[in-house]
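Quick start: what a row looks like.
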Amino acid sequence: MANSEEKLIIKGGRSLCGEVRISGAKNAVLKHIAAAILAADVTTIYNVPELTDVAIMLEVIGQLGAKTSYNKEEKYVTIDASTISSTVADKTYVSKMRASFNVLGALVGRIGEAKVALPGGCAIGERRVNFHIKGIEALGAKCEIKDGYVIAKAKKLTGADICFDIPSVGATENVMFAAIFAEGTTRIQNAAQEPEIVDLANFLKSMGAKITGEGTSEIVIQGIQKHVLHGTCYTTIPDRIEAGTYISAIIATRGSGIIRNIFPSHLTIYTGKLLEMGAKIKLIDPNTLQVSASRRLDAQNFITQPYPGFPTDLQACAMMLLAISNGVSVMTESLYENRFMHVEELWKMGANIRISKNHAIIKGVEKYMGAEVKATDLRAGGALVAAGLAAEGETIVTNLHHIDRGYEKFVEKLQILGADIIRTEVNSGECEGEHVGKL
């Protein structure tokens, strides 16, 4: 599986053509795994991608005492949470992946206490946990941060009205978990509206939770008794960010491809922009898009915003396209202050991009030139691979541990589309990286 001491060698200039099937949504599966520990029962989750992030999350709940197994062939995970015996999630894995912090709300909800290490993940900017703590405290828990851990205890949880200053995805999820067994009604106002939030609510409802309003700015949770919640069998939604990455790669190479196993409505804001830029995107059945581009796209401006706005996770892919489009574009990153780290890598490939605070002013060039670049975070890695596929000459991409966190069988899927790309070992001293886990 993943190994940061490897590299991708890409010979660019080929148009991607063919079909690709999108895997299950990483950002949904990880939260389903955390949610499974709410019920002292067995849960089976289908459409689970083989990713290092999934491996880490399974390690996190395994550390808590849950029994887990992963069927790689049929892509499902089985979790027996009846054996949970610990409320401590230590730094070994939590510090590597932010999503693992969601065991906080689940443990407080089910057991009434938790000691969870402060989260890690891609270094894309400051992502505080104050909203998580504020929400859980509003339900009656007492929280403190000590020695790199959040320690929460609650003798009793009571429903409350909670309003976030900004619609935080992680905080919305943690409060949903903690509120499942809270006495009375909890209302989360200015809640996150992402498709993964809707999928999580549907997952919890399949376990017996009472939730309404998911997908809107107000989510309402009616507390239930613990014995009411049970294990479930659930199929995860497709990964909209993976889909957006393949769409971007096909368009960048002026190819023509079919994207299967997709919920097109989850990508409307992005595909709408791409259509305005000159790409051709057609719905050929409810879960399939046909994508192509026969010329350079036109300049366009983007502003990252919480869903249903343009997703920050596709900012790097969009910038990759803008940098080889006609005219001058502006990309505004309104969510994370460090999410322009890939710009320096695109410079190596000939991009003309100037940074001014949280704005990137992009003057399109005719084409990329192959270069040696490194993935600076998960989504930047996907964008740099796409740039290499569109470039003239050879591109080498390192720091693959970032890419392995969120793209299942990335090389194999690109090869099916006709890409000239291989994965091989890095010679000693070529690059450094941290190995984050294996499935």
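That is the whole record. Residues 26-235 form a domain with the UDP-n-acetylglucosamine1-carboxyvinyl-transferase; Chain fold (CATH 3.65.10.10). The chain has two domains: 6-22+238-425, 26-235.
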